[in-house]
Amino acid sequence: MAKQSQKVTLAGFRDIDEATMPLVDKVIANHAKRIGELAAGTETLHVTLKQVHQREKSEKYEIHAKLLDSGKVYVSKVTERNLLAAVDKALNKLINEMD
Asked: What is the pLDDT of residues 26-76, one digit of tens each?
């Protein structure tokens, strides 16, 4: 049985600096691989970033992750000071829900 390819959509990441974005992409790619192993069918993964607090050195990032898998919808929301930790936790929540 061949695995269906998945579509990953990002929103709100436009203002993330060039040094951080490849790290975000890598975290998402690692989780997308695991999600692909667990998914029953073609899925769409949508990750949205919202910056909650804009004060220098105390930013908070809110990550909304939504996965559509064979008509079933999984969602998670995480707020963290560290962007990579927020993305990681949000996607782990989706994986735990699927598992």
From this structure: 999 999 999 988 888 867 999 999 988 767 667 899 999 999 988 899 999
Our measurement of the distance from residue 75's CA atom to the centroid of its chain's CA atoms, rounded to an integer in Å, reads 10
Domain range summary for the chain, segments of one domain joined by + = 7-98
Those residues with Cβ within 8 angstroms of residue 59's Cβ, 6 or more apart along the chain or in another chain: 51, 52, 53, 81
Q: Would you state the torsion angle of the CA atoms of residues 51, 78, 69, 27, taken in this order, to the nearest 10 degrees?
A: 80
Cα separation, 69 vs 73, whole angstroms: 6
Nearest to 76 by CA among 59, 94, 61: 94
Which CATH architecture group holds 7-98? 2-Layer Sandwich (3.30)
Two structure tokens written together for 3: 């695995």
User: pTM for this structure?
Assistant: 0.88
Q: For residue range 8-37, what is the model confidence (pLDDT) as tens digits?
A: 999 999 989 999 999 999 999 999 999 988
